[in-house]
Amino acid sequence: MRRKFRRKKGPVQSRKVVVDGITFASGLEKYMHLALKKAKIQAVYEGHTYEIFPSYQFESSAFERCANGKGDYKDRGNKKILNISYTPDFIGRGFIIECKGRANESFPLRWKMFKKYVQEHLPNVILYKPQNQKECDETIRLILKNNKLRK
C-alpha cells in the first residue's frame, strides 16, 4: 500500500544551505554570496543588526489574550515592550542587500521601517532587494557600476 505525499500547510520554508562555512537561510542568499564573491565585491553576511524601533515601557492597561491567541483575556499592560531589530543579509561598503524570495507577513512593515532608518542614519547607503537570481545578477552589475562612479 502506497502512502500519499502530503504537502506541508502554512508558509513556505526555505532550506538552509552551507557554502564556504556559512549557513545561508536560503538558496537565493547562497546565490548572492557566490555572485558577490565571483565579482570580488566584499560584503559581510548578516554582519550587523540595526535597532529600527527602540524598546519602551508601556505604562497603561491593555486587556488582551497572549499574542498566540491563547490564555485568558486579562490586563497585559504595564510591561516593557521589546525593540524591533533588523539584520540585513549582506552589508558592504556603501550598500546593503536583502535577498527576499517570498516575504512573510511581517516583512513589508519591517522593510519600510528599515528604509526609514537608512534614510535617517545611513544616508550614503544604497539598498538592494533582489527577489530572484536575475535580480541578484542585476544587483552585482549596479554595485560594480556605482563603485566605478565613486573612483
Protein topology:
Layout (H helix, E strand, L loop, with lengths): L16 E3 L2 E3 L2 H12 L4 E3 L4 E4 L2 E3 L4 E2 L9 E2 L3 E3 L2 E3 L3 E3 L2 E3 L9 H15 L4 E3 L4 H18 L1
Parallel strand pairs: 11-12
Antiparallel strand pairs: 1-2, 3-10, 4-9, 5-8, 6-7, 10-11
Explain this structure.
This protein is α+β, with helices and mostly antiparallel strands and 151 residues long. It folds into two domains: 17-49 and 87-150, Trna Endonuclease, Chain: A, domain 1; 54-83, no CATH class. The protein has three helices and twelve strands, in the order ββαβββββββββαβα. The protein has helices spanning 27-38, 107-121, 133-150, and strands at residues 17-19, 22-24, 43-45, 50-53, 56-58, 63-64, 74-75, 79-81, 84-86, 90-92, 95-97, 126-128. The chain has a four-stranded mixed β-sheet, with no helix packed on it. The protein has a two-stranded antiparallel ribbon with strand order 1-2. Helix 1 (27-38) packs parallel to helix 3. The protein is flat.
Could you name the key traits of this structure?
single chain, 151 residues, alpha+beta, Trna Endonuclease, Chain: A, domain 1, four-stranded mixed β-sheet, two-stranded antiparallel ribbon, 3 helices, 30% helix
Q: What's the end-to-end separation, in Å?
A: 68 Å
**Can you tell me the number of structural domains?**
2
From the structure provided, what is the oligomeric state, counting identical versus distinct chains? single chain
The low-confidence parts are none
Number of helices: 3
Query: Tell me about the biggest sheet?
Result: 4 strands, mixed
CATH class of the largest domain: Alpha Beta
Number of extended strands? 12
What's the pLDDT, averaged over the residues? 89
Q: How are strands sequenced across the largest beta sheet? A: 3-10-11-12
Principal-axis shape equals: flat
- What series of H and E elements makes up the topology? EEHEEEEEEEEEHEH
Share of helical residues: 25-40%
Radius of gyration: 20 Å
Portion in beta strands: 15-25%
Kindly name the structural category: alpha+beta
CATH fold-level topology of the largest domain:
Trna Endonuclease, Chain: A, domain 1
